[in-house]
Amino acid sequence: MTSTSLDPTTARFGIGQPVRRVEDRRFVMGRGRYVDDISLRHEAFAAVVRASSANARLQRVEVSAARSAPGVLAVLTGDDVLADGLAGLTAAAMPEDLGAPPGHRTFRPILATGRVRFAGEGIAFVVAETAADAADAAELVEVDYEPLGHVTDPLSAATPGAPQVHEDCPNGNRAWVLAFGDAEATAAAFESAPHVVSLRLENTRLTANPIEPRAALGEFDPARGTFMLYSSTQNPHGVRQQVAGLLKIPETSLRVVGPDVGGGFGMKADSYPEDALVCWASRRVGRPVKWVATRSESLLSDTGGRDQVVDGELALDERGKILAIRAHALHAVGAYIAPAGLVPSIFSSRFLPGAYDISTMHVVTEGMFTNTSPIGPYRGAGRPEAAYVTERLLDEAAQALGLDAVEIRRRNLIRPEDLPYETPTHFSYDSGDFPRVLERCAAEADWEGFPRRRAESEARGLRRGRGVAYYIEQGGVFNDRMELRFDPGGTVTVVAGTFSHGQGHETTYAQLVSEWLGVPFEQIRFVQGDTDMVPFGRGTVAARSSMIGGSALRRAADAVIERARPMAAELLEAAVEDVEFADRQFRVVGTRQGLSMMEVARAFYFPMGITDSFGVGLEGSGTWSTTPPNFPNGCHICEVEVDVGTGDVAVVAYTVVDDVGIVINPLICEGQVHGGLAQGLGQALLEHAAYDRDSGQLSSGTLGDYGMPRSKLMPPLRSLFEEIPCTTNPLGVKGVGEGATIGAPPAVMNAVLDALRPLGVAHLDMPATPDRIWAALAAAATAGAAGVQA
Amino acid sequence: MSVELSTTVNGAPRHEVVEPRLLLVHYLRETLGLTGTHVGCDTSQCGACTVILDGAAVKSCTVLAVQADGHEVTTVEGLAAGEALHPLQEAFSTAHGLQCGYCTPGFLMAAAALLAENPDPSEEEVHRGIEGNLCRCTGYLNIVKAVLAAAATMRHGTASGSDR
Ligand code: FES
Ligand code: FES
C-alpha cells in the first residue's frame, strides 16, 4: 500500500483556481464537432419552404415542380403531416399547471396545415441529394395565401378588434393573464403616497443569434425501427421527449445526441419542428437527412426574446422609501406558445420587487399572441424585463425627489439582517449583502468622482452620464442528475445530466471531482449530451449547472465514498467504522496510512476474490433540485459619453460587482460576465428584432439589419466578485450565466438619460441608437424653443 | 459543368474537380473535410469562415473555390505545428478567449493575418483587425487580450506556456 500525500494537482486545479479549460484544445485546433461537421453515409439534405405571409389561409401549396426538380427525393407538406398523424409542438407548462387561471394552449404543426401565423413558418420540407438541390427546389414551391390581417407587436395585438392569431382563442389575442400581489393594498398605497412616478417602457424584441445556427441530422434505422437525431440543442433529453411526442413514438425509440454546440442562450433549450422533420423525412426517404439553418432562416424562425410593453409605477414616501410598485405588462408570446414560452412572463412578474424591500405590489402580465416567431427564454428570460422596469423607475424617482441614484437604492435595498427575506412573489432570498455589493461597486467605479469626469468630457464637447442598476435573479430551475463511473484503471468519468455548450463544464466538474476525490484532474473524463450514455438530464439553461449539476455531483461523490468505504476497510485490514475518507484518501482513523480513491476503485474490478464480497464496479449517482433556488445578485455602474452632434453613444467605463456565491473557476465566471455584458449592451444600444407593421415581415432579417455587438462596443470593464455563500446548496454557489445580461440594459439606459436630461430628453426606449438619440434631442430642442416662446 | 482546381491547402497540394459555383468554404469543409472552418451567416458578416488566402484574411463564404486556383490557403487546421499549438491558440486558451468555440477558428485566422502584417498592434488595431468577426459568447475582451498576448510572445519568441 502506498501512502498518498495530497495530490499536488489538486492545489492547481481545485475549487477557486483559474483553471484553463480542457475543452479549448479541440476548439482552437479546429477539431470541434458541431452538427454540420457530422456526415452520415448517403445523407440527404433538406430545405424548408417558409411562409412569406404573416397571417393567412393557405389556399394552395403546389409542389409538383419541386418534386420533379433535379436531385429531389421528397417534398413534404402539411397534408403529409396530417396523413401521418404527427402531433403539434405545445407548451411544457401553462398557467393552469401552476394554479393560475387557464390560458389558451396551442399546438404548432411541424409543417403548416391550412394556415400560417407568422412570416417564416414552415410550409414544406424539401429533401434532395445536395443542399444546393434542396434550396433550388424549395424555390419552385408555389403558395397562394389569403391574408387575414396581422399583428406583430403586443400593443397592437391587445387593441380591440385586432386581427386574431388564433380564431378559437376565447380571449382575443390573450394567451394568458397572470397576476401577482395584492391589487387593493397596492391601490391604497398609491392613493396615499406623497410621490408617484410612472413610465411606459418597451423591452425590445431580441434574437439570440448564437454564431452556430440551429441544425439537425436525423437517421431512421429500419432494422430496429428506431431514430437517431443529432441536434444543436441545449437539452438533448428534452428534445428526445418533445420529438418523440411529435412523432408519437416511445422515447426508447429515439436517441438524441447534442455534439459540440455553438452557443444557445436559451434559444436552443427547446426542440423545433426541424428536429422532428429530419427524423420523419429520414423514415420516408430511407436515408439520413440533414438540415442546417441559414442565418436568415435562424432570424426568421428561432424563438425571439423579451418583446414586452409595460406600464410601471412606483409609490414613494418623502425620503424616497418605496411604498409600493405596480405594473401592467403586455408580453408577446408569438404565433404559438413555445414549449418554455411561459417562462419569461413568470419571471418578469416575480422579480419586479428586485432586491428591494417592497412588500406591497401588484403586477398583471398579459401574454399576447402576435404574428411573429414564438417568444422563448433568452438569457435571463424575464429577469431582464423585471429589472429594467424597477431600475428605470428608481432613476425616475431619484429625479423627482432630488436624490442621488445610488442613495435611493441604498435607502431601499433589503438589509442583510432581514435575510431570509420573503418577497410578495414567494421567493425566499437566503443570502447576500446587497448594500455591501452596492457600496463596493460605487467605490470601485468612483461614483463620487463623476463630476470631474463629466467636466472633462464636456471640455471635449461630449455629454457624460452615469447609470447604476441592481439586479437579482434565480439561478437554476428543476432538478437534475449526475453520475461518477470509475473504470478498471482507476480513472473516472463524469456523466452529466447538464449540457455544456460553451460554459466549460468539462473543466469545472473536473475541478470539483479532483478536489473532492483526489483523482488527478487530467484523468477525469466527461460525457454529456447523448441520451444513450446519460441516463437522464435536463440540459443547461437558466444558470443551473453549477448549483444543480455541482450539488448533484457532490451527492454522487458522497455515494461513491460510501460504496468504496467497506472495500477500503478490507484493503486496509481495518473495521469499516475505523475508516474515514479525509484529505482525499481512505485512512484508518488516527493513522497516516492511506489509500487513494483510485486504488480502491481498481479493487472493484478484480476478476475474482474481493469483488465477490463487494460487487463489481464503482459508481455513484446523485440528484439535486432547484428547490430552494439560489439568488445571484449584483450591481452595475457605467459611464457613457454621448456625441450630441451624431447621437453616438460610447460606454467609457463599466464596473460590475457580482455575488455569485463561491466562485469555482474565476476565469470562467468572468467570461460569463463579459459575454452577458455584451448581450446586455447590445440590447441597450443596438439590437432590435423588428417586424414591419404594415407587411408583417421581419425587417431585421440579416446580420446587416440586426445590430450585433462587435468588439468596439465593449467598454473597459472591471468584473469583481463578492463571494457570499449560498446557504441552500452544499457548494455555496449561485448561478453566473445571466446576471450581466440583466443588469446592463437599465444601467446603460440610466446613464444615457443622465447624459441627456440636461438637454431636455426625459425618456428614451431601447435601443438607444444614434438616430433615436438624435430625434429625441431634436424634439427636446423644439419643445424647449416652443417653451421659451410661450 | 465542372472545372479543375489546384490549390495548396495547409501546405499540401490539392487537385480536385469542382463545380464553378462551389464556395471556398464548402470546398474546404465538404470536398476536403476540413470542418474547422465554420459558417455562421449568409451575408458575409460573421467571419466564422475566415481563412488565409496568400497571406490575407478572407471570408471563405464570399470567395469561389475556383478563385483559389493556383493559390495557397491556410485554415485553422494548419495553424498548429503538428500537436504544438500556435502562440495564438495558446493565448486564446490562456486568456479564456473562447467559450462555445464556434467563432474561434475565424478569429484565430483573422488574428494570424493581422499579426503577420503588424507584429506589434495597439489595442485599437486589434479591434480593427477583428471587426469583421462576430462572437456571441465571450464579449470580445478576452479575445483582444489573447491577440495582444500572442503578439508579445511571437515578438519575443518565447512560448506562452505549456499545454494546460
Ligand atoms: S459565414 Fe459569415 S462571413 Fe462567412
Ligand atoms: S465563443 Fe461562442 S461565438 Fe465566440
List keywords for this structure.
heterodimer, A: 790 residues, alpha+beta, Aldehyde Oxidoreductase, domain 3, Aldehyde Oxidoreductase, domain 4, 7-stranded mixed sheet, 24% strand, B: 164 residues, Ubiquitin-like (UB roll), DNA polymerase, domain 1, 5-stranded mixed sheet, 5 strands, 15% strand, disordered C terminus, binds FE2/S2 (inorganic) cluster
Produce a short descriptive summary.
By secondary structure, chain A is of the alpha+beta class. Helix content of chain A is 31%, strand content 24%. Chain B has 164 residues and is α+β, with helices and mostly antiparallel strands.
Question: What can you see in these coordinates?
Answer:
The complex is a heterodimer of chains A (790) and B (164). Chain A has 790 residues and is an alpha+beta fold. In chain A, strands 3-5-1-12-9-10-11 form a seven-stranded mixed sheet, with helices on both faces. In chain A, a hairpin with a 2-residue loop joins strand 22 (579-582) and strand 23 (585-588). The model of chain A is unreliable at 1-6 (pLDDT under 50). Chain A has 22 helices and 28 strands. Chain B has a five-stranded mixed sheet with strand order 2-1-5-3-4, with helices on both faces. In chain B, a hairpin with a 2-residue loop joins strand 1 (3-9) and strand 2. In chain B, helix 2 packs across helix 5 (141-156). The longest helix of chain B has 16 residues, at 141-156. Residues 159-164 of chain B have low confidence and may be disordered. At the A-B interface, helix 2 and helix 20 of A face helix 2, helix 3 and helix 5 of B. Bound molecules: FE2/S2 (inorganic) cluster (FES) (2 copies). One FE2/S2 (inorganic) cluster binds at residues 39-41, 44-49, 59, 61 of chain B.
The averaged pLDDT of chain A comes out at 95
CATH superfamily of the largest domain in chain A: Aldehyde oxidase/xanthine dehydrogenase, molybdopterin binding domain
Q: What Rg of chain B, in angstroms, do the CA atoms define?
A: 16 Å
Q: Which band does the percent of strand residues of chain B land in?
A: 15-25%
The main sheet of chain A comes to: 7 strands, mixed
Instruction: Determine the strand fraction of chain A and express it as a percent band.
Output: 15-25%
Order of helices and strands of chain B: EEHEEEHHHH
* C-alpha geometry of chain A: globular
Provide the helix percentage of chain A: 25-40%
CATH architecture of the largest domain in chain A: 2-Layer Sandwich
Spans where pLDDT lies below 50 across 5 or more residues of chain A: 1-6
- Give me the secondary-structure category of chain B: alpha+beta
What class would the helix/strand composition of chain A place it in?
alpha+beta
The H-level CATH homologous superfamily of the largest domain in chain B, spelled out, is Beta-grasp domain
Alpha carbon gap, first and last residue of chain A: 96 Å
